[in-house]
Write a structure and sequence with these properties.
This protein is α+β, with helices and mostly antiparallel strands. Helices cover 19% and strands 31% of the residues. The chain contains 12 helices and 39 strands. The strands form 9 sheets. The chain has an 8-stranded mixed β-sheet with strand order 32-33-35-34-36-37-38-39, sandwiched between helices. A hairpin with a 7-residue loop joins strand 21 and strand 22. Helix 4 (88-99) crosses helix 5 and helix 4 packs across helix 12 (689-705). It is globular.
């Protein structure tokens, strides 16, 4: 049956493409000012003897004037539609109000000083502060001063061990390509010209000599879409030109990997190098920095599991890994005798998925129990000290810091409780509230419940649903079903001001922990990869059916939402089940499954997806669900708002451009199919607050209008 479906999808695509400019008459008759007609080309690719037309290949050229004109025309059409929505101003005011409060991160200690990030409310970028010895707060780094429009963001701030030097990364317009700036902490002076063309990198200091960082050779052609597949680890000696930086790993074909990173441990004696070709699993090597030998000590010789340095203790390195432990464990190894037979379990694998941290000379094990946090404290030998009592059901994070510090900080949150920061005395176990949230959202008026439902194959899947306590579960409530389902990423209960805005306007927010994520360990992840990817879509579809069957909402009041890999999820279920929901919101999605691996670092996603080139079976499977290739001319699709950004060099915007053009070509009916394309923005990280407010004002007002809602709760009438 699956092969028949795949072949019919291929044949349907072949029949539906036509010649350049030859529009499908059934589809075109339904097009009006809500959609734009896009010129169709005659490009065809052949995979294993199957011809696959790609009529919008020309939209992959992000430097062409034709693409620029198309973007402008699409944005004009979209703005015309959204700006005419009467409730948009009320929606925008709600989103802005719930973002407009002072919010902080947990403090961290560097050089004996406390640092933390704060956003005063609607600042475009958060500011890094330092707490002085007298308790006063001073601005240490303010990225809002780095550009007039707030589109330069700061990340990866890293201090040298003694806290006297700091390096940080800057991104312009959301790009993954970044620069590294180094400053003297005491004077604030910039010490040298910034390093440039840095991508997917940490900053790991070696004393005060310099630091390790990673990048690719700058590609020829467009840096937005050109393929990058050989990551290199460099050492930068402070005060020397970047051109003289030594390649530590990745210079040879034998060391060629797509993702390379490093950590320094053992009192700066050992460099732990991680090397991977996909987003799951890595090789692990140790370089003895006290030795003249260039030979690397091999810890993991293959990429069948993940591993990373957690802490150093008494000559041993503590490594967190899921090797031979799908739900995770912490091992101790002697760098001079790193063979697997010499490893010792410090925290052995348990029933639940482990996420470990270290601070104050202790280890903290955060376990996921049906996506909910439980935390235990261990000493560095692996002896259980205590279970940490958390304030509610939700997600606890943090617990990291220097071995020498005497106080441990963590943050607790869930979908209705804004993040609060707590201080833990690791000796006594006493917990005190360090910073309460200042969010204006009153979570006491809302409730969160976890339900379990059965997917198509009988798999039991959890889902967390949040809504106002006075909500009538009669099927009439506007609901957003959000999903991700990939890359071993766990979707945990966390507060979001934009989600809070949806709740306050009277909506329901539901998040299923579908396969492909990491909520139940490696097996849960694998069950949503490659030729099992349909499990992810089935889980999500079953979640929608459960919400409707149990009266939370109805088809007419249901929207599906997801970003990146979640955008693929939304695109896939939109083409498979257009009858199931009213609104589709695919954001920055991976939507062309036959070509995703040809752009930037996309080939690194093959662990989850497979590629169209690796085998005929994989090609046919991808063709069977690729959103771009499974739109059906003459189909009435849900109201769809595709969102992307011109400078997204993670999931290049051509995915969304081509999908929008194809949907607009195939769609019939009255529902709008639009694309919203942000300028001077990327995949999402570092997005200025003002852009965030506008984005969600557009998304929510589009969603509510197409659910038939004219006024939001808090205005003249409720949803």
């Amino acid at each position: 049956m699956r092969n028949a479906i795949l072949m019919s999808a291929a044949m349907f695509l072949l029949m539906g493409c036509g010649e350049p400019g030859n529009e499908n008459t059934d589809s075109a008759s339904a097009l009006d000012d809500k959609m734009v007609r896009t010129t169709r080309g005659d490009h065809v690719d052949t995979y294993f003897g199957v011809d696959v037309p790609d009529p919008y290949r020309w939209l992959e050229d992000d430097l062409s004037s034709d693409t620029a004109d198309w973007i402008a025309e699409q944005n004009t059409s979209t703005r015309s539609y959204i700006d005419a929505i009467s409730l948009r101003d009320d929606v925008k005011n709600t989103v802005a109000r719930l973002l407009n409060f002072e919010r902080e991160t947990a403090p961290f200690i560097e050089g004996g000083k406390r640092y933390f990030y704060r956003n005063s409310g609607l600042q475009n970028q958060r500011v890094l502060y330092r707490i002085e010895d007298d308790g006063s707060e001073t601005v240490f780094l303010d990225p809002n001063t780095f550009s007039e429009d707030g589109t330069v963001s700061m990340s990866g701030v890293s201090f040298s061990d003694d806290g006297s030097l700091v390096a940080y990364q800057l991104s312009e317009g959301g790009s993954d390509w970044r620069s590294i700036v180094t400053r003297d902490v005491a004077t604030g002076d910039v010490l040298e010209p910034p390093l440039i063309d840095v991508k997917f990198s940490g900053i790991n200091w070696l004393g005060n000599e310099g630091f390790f960082y990673s990048s690719y050779d700058k590609p020829d052609g467009s840096e937005l879409s050109a393929k990058t597949d050989q990551h290199k680890l460099y050492f930068h000696a402070l005060g020397t030109p970047q051109s003289s930086d030594n390649v530590v790993f990745g210079a040879t074909t034998e060391q060629k990997h797509r993702y390379v990173g490093a950590s320094v441990g053992g009192d700066d004696r050992y460099l732990v190098i991680s090397a991977a070709n996909s987003t799951s699993g890595n090789k692990l090597f140790i370089k003895d920095l006290a030795s003249d030998s260039e030979e690397l000590i091999v810890v993991f010789a293959d990429e069948s599991a993940d591993g990373s340095l957690l802490e150093s203790n008494d000559g041993y390195l503590l490594i967190e890994t899921n090797r031979d432990a799908p739900k995770g464990r912490v091992i101790a190894l002697d760098p001079q005798a790193a063979g697997e037979t010499e490893w010792r379990d410090v925290i052995p694998e348990s029933e639940y998925v482990l996420n470990a941290s270290s601070s104050a000379g202790y280890l903290f094990a955060e376990y996921m129990v049906d996506a909910i946090s439980q935390v235990e404290q261990f000493d560095l030998e692996g002896n259980l000290i205590r279970e940490i009592e958390l304030p509610d059901l939700g997600s606890a994070s943090g617990f990291g810091g220097d071995k020498e510090q005497s106080e441990v900080f963590f943050t607790f949150t869930n979908y209705r409780i804004a993040p609060a920061i707590f201080s833990l005395d690791p000796e006594s176990g006493d917990i005190s509230l360090y910073r309460a949230s200042k969010s204006p959202f009153d979570g006491n008026n809302y409730q969160t419940e976890q339900v379990f439902y059965s997917s198509k194959d009988g798999t039991r899947v959890p889902m967390i649903i949040t809504y106002a306590k006075d909500t009538l579960l009669d099927g009439s409530t506007p609901t957003i079903l959000y999903g991700y389902g990939g890359f071993d990423i766990s979707i945990r209960p966390r507060f979001s001001s934009t989600v809070a805005a949806w709740l306050e306007m009277g909506g329901i927010y539901a998040v299923p922990n579908i396969r492909g994520g990491g909520e139940y360990g490696k097996a849960w992840h694998i069950a949503g990869t490659k030729t099992q990817k349909h499990n992810v879509f089935d889980d999500f579809i079953a979640a929608a059916e459960h919400l409707i069957a149990e009266g939370y909402t109805s088809k007419e009041k249901l929207a599906v939402s997801g970003r990146s890999n979640g955008g693929l999820l939304v695109g896939a279920v939109t083409t498979q089940r257009p009858d199931l929901f009213q609104v589709s919101l695919p954001g920055v999605g991976v939507l062309d499954m036959l070509r995703y691996h040809t752009f930037t670092a996309g080939a690194g996603w093959a662990y989850d997806y497979g590629t169209s080139e690796e085998s005929e079976e994989m090609f046919r499977y991808l063709l069977g669900y690729s959103p771009l290739h499974n739109t059906k001319p003459g189909t009435a699709y849900p109201a769809t708002l595709i969102t992307t950004a011109e400078r997204d060099d993670r999931v290049v915007p051509a995915h969304s451009y081509k999908f929008a053009a194809q949907m607009q070509y195939a769609h019939t009916g009255d529902a709008p199919v639009l694309i919203r394309i942000d300028s001077n923005a990327g995949h999402g990280a570092g997005t200025p607050t003002d852009k965030l407010v506008d984005q969600y004002a557009d998304i929510y007002s589009f969603t509510l209008k197409n659910m038939g809602v004219e006024k939001i709760k808090g205005s003249e009438s409720a949803l």
